[in-house]
Write a structure and sequence with these properties.
The protein is an all-alpha fold. The protein contains 10 helices and no strands. The N terminus is likely disordered.
Length: about 210
């Protein structure tokens, strides 16, 4: 019994020593793991609090609600993807097809590495409330605008509305090819990248050509 009390006390001290930012990252790690493993509907605030060894009010303090918790997980996942995409294309040279292939490789490697995480955090359409539906839509649009920014760097003369339309098309092709990879086991990552490159590079060259 004494050993258990000591372990509990030690854990409490460690919890107190975490900064709010560090605690938030820890909670996000646990929330994401449970949501990816069990699904959003089957994961409760109580489940995450129990796994983290904290009380429910701490979860509410960080995320506000269960919906806020999912949005925080999706926001972080998209930020990580966008950072990887930017790093892969930063200073990259070559024709449009080569650049699209780099971007496609980052995207489909992410999907291949953890397809369930991709399905839940990148293509989730869960909408338990207007706030959640709007939040997920905003996150998607944020990624699309990031794609548009990258296109604009390589096609500065193209009209902004045309660039944005291309970014939406690129996002749609990537998401649907990803779904195809999940249901068609014969489609390999390299083949998905090749199809992505073929569609996107040809489309961009046709639409953005001066």
């Amino acid at each position: 019994m004494a050993a258990r009390v000591e372990t509990s006390a030690t854990a409490q001290v460690k919890r107190r020593r975490l900064s709010k930012e560090s605690r938030g990252e820890q909670l996000l790690d646990i929330a994401e793991r449970l949501i990816v493993a069990n699904g959003y509907e089957a994961t409760s605030i109580e489940d995450v609090a129990r796994a983290a060894g904290v009380t429910r009010p701490i979860l509410y303090d960080h995320f506000g609600s269960k919906e806020g918790m999912l949005l925080a997980c999706c926001r972080r996942a998209r930020s990580q993807f966008e950072a990887s995409l930017t790093a892969a294309l930063n200073g990259a040279e070559g024709d449009v097809a080569a650049l699209v292939e780099r971007a496609g490789t980052v995207y489909f490697e992410m999907l291949e590495h953890d397809p369930r995480r991709w399905t839940i955090l990148f293509t989730s359409t869960t909408a338990q409330s207007g706030m959640l539906a709007e939040g997920l839509s905003d996150l998607r649009r944020g990624t699309i605008l990031r794609i548009a920014h990258i296109i604009a760097q390589h096609a500065p003369e193209a009209p902004a509305h045309t660039i944005e339309a291309c970014a939406y098309a690129i996002s749609g092709v990537g998401e649907q090819l990803g779904r195809c990879m999940l249901v068609n086991s014969a489609l390999t990552r390299s083949e998905a990248v090749a199809v992505y490159r073929g569609f996107i590079a040809a489309g961009l060259q046709a639409v953005l050509r001066p």
